[in-house]
Specification:
The protein has 352 residues and is α/β, with parallel strands linked by helices. The chain folds into two domains: 8-128 and 299-320, NAD(P)-binding Rossmann-like Domain (Rossmann fold); 133-291 and 327-350, Dihydrodipicolinate Reductase, domain 2. It is built from eleven helices and 13 strands. The protein has helices at 19-28, 42-52, 60-64, 81-90, 105-117, 132-142, 162-166, 187-197, 298-312, 321-340, 346-350, and strands at 8-13, 32-38, 55-57, 71-74, 94-98, 122-125, 149-157, 200-208, 220-227, 232-238, 248-253, 256-261, 264-268. A seven-stranded mixed β-sheet has the order 8-9-10-7-11-12-13. A six-stranded parallel β-sheet has the order 3-2-1-4-5-6, sandwiched between helices.
Length: 352
């Protein structure tokens, strides 16, 4: 009888900006090792493979045909995740997808369905859930220390210069990026907002492109929110803010206030007794013109340390493909609300 597998052989698809972060995280986890990479850009592929000493492929079918390959990590533009992911699923490979899962719920559902039909696992990278102070805040909320949540304010007030959008043809496009500031820069905060505060019942939004040229997506958006638990809130996303600010989530509840400023948590309230701010290793702000500013692989590694054992043990990973549909439904709902000037209920979008 063959011994059960204790680690996975992993191949990475797309050798762009975020690929190094994934490769470094994989190198540090005990549950997998990087063995190969695929890219259509020969210069990027050669640089990546030399740096991480892995085999390179410019033919995707040959990449997938490697009998040693167990898991495929997709780091290509968002609107290509379905195309690469469904072929990997058909080849019997588990999938890890860089956020967001796709640019539309329709395409995302097709990927989830394809993985289910081929009996392979699917996880989506939302590494901000593994920030120490975020986990602390989640525990405080779940234990009831904050009490009933009444008002929430979440903002991603970042800056991207025109060169950022001009540097890659897919950035800010509807077909490959899915939009602009909300689906690209702010979707991590959307995921945290829903994970911490619960699902949104309805939202009403505005969006516009105010400071950038030659992009189809928005660079500014705001939305008012009604949560299923009765709380109300405001969500803001921008890549136009000078100077850029930390990502912030402020939760007001009956026993006090929790303020997540970047990766640091501050609690205020007579029942909380905690004014301490904890400095964490990784900044999730990335508010400057470079999306990799202050980035480390620490929280990616923590998510890999959860995903790969879940795959090994046939458990549900954090965040599963199905879970990732919730944040995408919020984004799709925001866009629909802004376009049609009406309130939108994300559950109706999830229901198809």
């Amino acid at each position: 009888m063959a011994k059960p597998k204790k680690e996975f052989n992993i191949g990475l698809v797309g050798c762009g900006t975020i690929a190094d972060t994934h490769a470094e995280a994989i190198a540090e986890t005990e549950y997998g090792r990087l063995i190969s990479a695929f890219s259509r850009t020969e210069s990027n592929l050669a640089t990546f493979c030399n740096k991480f000493e892995v085999k390179g492929y410019s033919d995707y079918q040959k990449f997938l045909a490697d009998g040693d390959l167990d898991v495929v990590v997709v780091c290509t533009p968002s609107g290509t995740h379905l195309d690469y992911g469904e072929k990997a699923a058909e080849a019997g490979k588990h999938l890890i997808i860089e956020k967001p899962i796709e640019v539309s719920l329709d395409r995302a559902r097709r990927l989830v369905d394809r993985c289910q039909k081929n009996e392979v696992k699917l996880a989506v990278i939302y590494q901000n859930r593994f920030i120490e102070d975020v986990k602390k805040l989640k525990s405080i909320i779940d234990e009831g220390a904050l009490g009933k949540i009444v008002m929430v304010d979440a903002s991603v007030k970042w800056f991207r210069d025109q060169e950022y959008y001009d540097s890659a043809g897919w950035r800010g496009t509807l077909s490959l990026d899915g939009g602009g500031a909300v689906i690209n820069q702010a979707i991590h905060t959307v995921d945290l907002l829903l994970w911490l505060c619960g699902e949104v019942e309805s939202l009403q939004a505005y969006k516009d492109t105010l400071t950038h040229k030659r992009i189809e997506g928005e660079d500014n958006a705001v939305a008012s929110l009604r949560f299923k638990n009765g709380a109300i809130g405001v969500f803001k996303a921008s890549t136009s803010i000078v100077p850029p600010q930390n990502r912030a989530i402020e939760i007001h509840a009956e026993n006090g206030t929790a303020h997540l400023d970047g990766d640091r948590l501050k609690l205020r309230g007579t029942d909380l007794n905690d004014e301490e701010e904890t400095k964490t290793e990784e900044s999730s702000g990335a508010g400057a013109s470079s999306p990799m500013a202050g980035m480390s692989n620490n929280n990616h590694k923590k998510q890999y340390d959860q995903i790969l054992p879940a795959f090994l043990n046939d458990d549900k990973p954090v965040v599963s493909g199905e879970d990732s549909l919730k944040s995408l439904a919020f984004v799709e709902g925001l866009y629909l609300s802004a376009d049609e000037k009406r309130a939108v209920y994300p559950d109706t979008l999830l229901a198809g």
